[in-house]
Amino acid sequence: MAEITTRQTGAAVIWYDAALVPGFAPDLFDPAWLKQTGRLTGTSTGRNTAWFLRYEGREMVLRHYWRGGMVGRIVKDLYLREPVDRSRAMREFTLLDWMHGQGLPVPRPVAARFSPFGPWYRADLLMERIPDTRPLADCLAEGPLSDRDWMRIGAVIARFHKAGVHHSDLNCRNILLDGAGGIWLIDFDKCERRPQGGWAQENIRRLERSLIKEKGKVPGLHWTDRDWQALLVGYRVISAPPDIKYDA
């Protein structure tokens, strides 16, 4: 578990892992400062921008929390103020830290910031960057995965479910594959630990819906019913009692 240090900078409250970054600089949350000092190494311009940076020899990702849906068109990044430890970034930091300590394949959290603004607050999260990774959707746009790969994806999801981790937005862009064959889950905003229940199957159905949607947008997407069945086999092998076996 992280050695969490709390720091106050103006009205903002920062949590950071002192073991990872003993010389933590609050300006790490400022993309303009990162660019000016040569620490910014790139950006990701998906639905919301993320900034890639290098600091004290570590590759990291900075993410600002943005509102989605209809509300996000009016109030882009303000959330109703709440206790610091219940705020968006701090909750995700805490969950990531716990999952990392359990050996689950997630980014390691570095720091989180709570910035109050009257009755509102803004939030930011800084994580270690997982090297040489691509979203599952991008991989499928280029070529098919093997049955073994799909089974491994299913097995990784099952590990999270057995640990009681509910991923509120499990989709084909929040699953990453790395160059060494590793599989990672990302984006745990609004996620939580839960007692075992029907939510796990709904998680799986949500992923299936995202793959169907992606195939509708990318007609040549390399995803078939056989692939999905292989994923389910891998999921069941991990989630089922040890005396039950499934054939591929």
TrEMBL record:
It catalyses: an alpha-Kdo-(2->6)-lipid IVA + ATP = a 4-O-phospho-alpha-Kdo-(2->6)-lipid IVA + ADP + H(+). Pathway: Bacterial outer membrane biogenesis; LPS core biosynthesis. The active site is at D169. Keywords: ATP-binding, Cell inner membrane, Cell membrane, Kinase, Lipopolysaccharide biosynthesis, Membrane, Nucleotide-binding, Transferase. It is an enzyme of class 2 (transferase). GO terms for molecular function: kinase activity. Pfam families: Kdo (PF06293). It is found in: Cell inner membrane. InterPro entries: KDO_kinase, Kinase-like_dom_sf. Its EC number is 2.7.1.166. It is a peripheral membrane protein. Catalyzes the ATP-dependent phosphorylation of the 3-deoxy-D-manno-octulosonic acid (Kdo) residue in Kdo-lipid IV(A) at the 4-OH position. Belongs to the protein kinase superfamily. KdkA/RfaP family. This is 3-deoxy-D-manno-octulosonic acid kinase. The gene is kdkA.
